[in-house]
Amino acid sequence: MSTLSTVDESAPPTTPATPVGDDFGGRSGGRAFRDQLARVVMWTAFVVALIPLVWILGATIVKGGQIIASVDWWSLSQSGITARREGGGAVHAIQGTLIQAAVTALISVPIGVLTAVYLVEYGRGRLAKVVSFMVDILTGIPSIVAGLFIYALWVTTLGFQRIGFAVCLALTMLMIPTVVRSTEEMLKLVPNELREASYALGVPKWKTIMKIVIPTSFSGIVTGVLLGLARVMGETAPLIILGPYTAVIATNLFDGLMPTLPTMIYQNYSENLQPAIDRTWGAALTLILIIFVLNIAGRFIGRFSKVKS
Amino acid sequence: MADGLAPSPLLPPLEGTDLVSSITGHSAIDELPSGDGRPPLEADRAGTGRLGDRIFGGLATGSGILVLALVTLVGLFLVIQAVPSLLNNEANFLTSREWVPSGAQPRFGIVDLLWATIVTSIIAMFIAVPLGVAVALFITQYAPGWLNKPAATLVDLLAAVPSIVYGFWGLQVAGQYFEPVATVIDRVLGWLPFFEYTGTPSAKSTLAFAGVILAIMILPIVTAISREVFSQVPTAHKEGALALGATKWEMIRTAVIPFGKPGIISAAMLGLGRALGETLAVTLLLSALNTSSAFSFSIFGGGETFASRIANDAGEFDSAQKTGAYIAAGLVLFLLTFIVNAAARVVIERRKAFTE
After folding, report:
1. Which residue has the higher pLDDT, A174 or B101?
2. Residue A5 burial (10 A CB sphere; 0-12, 13-18, 19+)
3. Which residue in A261, A299, B148, B304 could disulfide with B309, CB within 3.0 to 4.6 Å?
4. Alpha carbons B201 and B184: distance in angstroms, whole number
């Protein structure tokens, strides 16, 4: 670089100072300018997109970090603690969120994976098209509508109470489409030669799917499930309709209300008192932590996938 | 058994751009089996007759039909429960601004809800679509190799933050910085009824700010889908443009964006579908209108969307009549998102037909 600049300085003043590169490209100033401008715009867009992420994480950590960095937070419930008072923990809500997520996964993973198997391995003709279309529609159903539907079914029609299991049903509706879509992608990536080799050995189709296709795409499917789970764990709308908050530990899905982190956030936010606001930030940080751990675990497992997208 | 097969040399080179032939633009992905309407896998006869095959095939088909039934049931149930309330409604459901869903003479209509829902979603689209497309272009065309994947992951992580946290953050932290923005917009464009900012409700509780937060929330969807189509642009198109002397930006304008256009449109639609139904962020932010207040066209007004009205009143579903009114509102929201998503799907399908 330095040699170049000395050459430039020693050159006679009559020589035009234009660099050779621009002459060669034949670009007018306007075109080069627009090109540079576009480059700047794209970089700026990326930085702008990151601002909210950094800001939200920063704010949540700053305001919620202190409250969750105590033993109480991870070992006590909010039983007997009014909004005015500090103290208590979130263990009731964490338990509720984890239990509901586990049951939701237990219901939606078999249905989702089997539907994906149907779409990739069996589906043909009109029915497969309609099912695929319906999965898309299910993906787009707003979570509050899923909550309303389960309310209309569970409470209004069947006459049951608002319990934890009803929440799981609503979350299942939201999780099935993500599992179907991600599993479908993974199954499609399994090379056809593997299936053909298996068939050629006389292995029945169902065994080929169970022993070849699904194991080959297994870690990809797990990734999809974890990402889907991370998504439904943060859902609040159906919980507000179907699973109101309670401050005590409740682990029975079939009896009584079940507290969760999202409803804990909603409840404490609406109290509008400083101790409750602090708890809201704490619950928000806890929820984000759980979701991010699932997300990162999912992406990490995806790295071991035998098929890559 | 499967483990023995894993490092098979049969695995096609699925990573990177080798996937797409630079001459024909034909993608190796096209060779892979697909469920939606393409010719099924060969060797289907492998599944004839055996008990295990019939059970497994039946289970798979059954799950598919279950999903189909689920969506149908959603529509059916919402209609069945909404109709009695709608029949009792003394006001016009589509044109009334009132919302008194209980009592002997219930009167409720959706005008205010529809307005707030559409305004917030459109504001979100106006911000998120250009920004999302730019971020997708950055990730696929501009980012240095080491930054590609981390950048995509970071933007995806925006989708992992729960809706309610966005709302709370908007209210407690970010909202105050919207006050000067609203004031400036009012000063410049305030003579238009759409941009009149009176100071009540405060800027963070307006439709405009709810739209901004929604924009952040749908940004990852718009980016992810645009990114996917941009990365599928045939290398030959790009190289062709560059070989003709185009600058990078001209290459993007003439090769990448036209190829990705249907993808951008469907990304926008899917983002819109998400924005229409987004609940908690909007519920926390928006300040509800007084029942007697005059209708305002301003984006700096308050209001409630379909979703936020339902969430706000979720504790009050005590009578069938009242619940029915909210379910009717939910049904309209379901139809809106259904139409938007179906339209997005049609656009994607047409693009598939075009590229094959």
Report:
1. A174
2. exposed
3. B304
4. 16
Q: What are B108's strand-pairing partners?
A: B99
Q: With contact defined as beta carbons under 8 Å apart, do B33 and B40 qualify?
A: yes
Nearest Cβ partner for B68 among A53, A134, A291: A134
Contact B154 A53 (CB under 8 A): yes
Helix, strand, coil percentages in chain B from 3-state DSSP, rounded to 5: 70, 0, 30
Of A46, A206, A234, the CB nearest to B151: A46
Q: Does A205 touch chain B (CB under 8 A)?
A: yes
A with B: how many residue pairs have Cβ under 8 Å apart?
Answer: 351
d(CA B351, CA B229): 10
Residue B144: asked if its preceding bond is cis (omega within 30°), the reply is no
Find out whether B116 and A30 touch, Cβ atoms under 8 Å. Answer: no
- Please enumerate in sequence order all residues whose Cβ is within 8 A of that of A24, keeping only pairs 6 or more positions apart, or say none: none
How far does Cα A70 stand from its chain's mean position? Answer: 27
Q: What is the largest CA-CA distance in chain A?
A: 94
Residue with tokens 């630079």, as numbered in its chain = B22
**Contact by Cβ (8 Å): A55, B168:** no
Are B282 and B308 within 8 A, CB to CB?
yes
Report the complex ipTM. 0.85
Measured between beta carbons, the chain A residues lying within 8 angstroms of B50 are 204, 206
Tokens, residue A112: 């989702």
Q: State both tokens at A254.
A: 């079939």
d(CA A229, CA A178): 9
pLDDT digits (tens, 9 = 90+) for A93-148: 999 999 999 999 999 999 999 999 999 988 878 899 899 989 988 988 999 999 99
The one-character DSSP state at A34 is H
Say how far apart CA B323 and CA B326 lie, in whole Å.
5
pLDDT at A26: 56
Q: Do residues A265 and A280 lie in contact, with contact meaning Cβ atoms separated by under 8 Å? A: yes
What b/e string do you get for A97-117 counting C-beta neighbours within 10 Å, with b at 16 or more? Answer: bebbbebbbebbbebbbbbbb
Cβ <8 Å between B70 and A134: yes
A50, burial (CB in 10 Å: exposed 0-12, middle 13-18, buried 19+):
middle
> Environment class of residue B315 by beta-carbon count within 10 Å: exposed (0-12), middle (13-18) or buried (19+)?
exposed
Residue with tokens 């621009």, as numbered in its chain: A22
Per-residue pLDDT band at A10 (split at 50, 70, 90): very low
Q: Which of B179, B168, B133 lies closest to B283, judged by CA?
A: B168
Q: Which residue of B81, B279, B318, B331 is the best one to mutate when testing the A interface, meaning the one whose CB has the most A CBs within 10 A?
A: B279
The Cα–Cα gap between A172 and A108 comes to 5
Q: Using the CB atoms, write b or e for B155-166: b if 16+ within 10 Å.
A: bbbbbbbbbbbb
Angle at A112 between CA A111 and CA A113, to 5 degrees: 95
The interaxial angle of helices B51-88 and B320-355, nearest 10 deg, is 130
**First CA to last CA across chain A, in angstroms?**
42
What is the rounded end-to-end Cα distance, in angstroms, of chain B? 36
d(CA A86, CA A88): 7
Quick one: tokens of B254? Answer: 């003439």
The Cα-based distances of A39 to B131, B152, B173, B229 in angstroms read 14, 18, 31, 20
User: For residue B351, what are its two tokens?
Assistant: 């693009």
Distance of CA B145 to the CA centre of its chain: 29
Answer whether A212 touches B (CB < 8 Å): yes
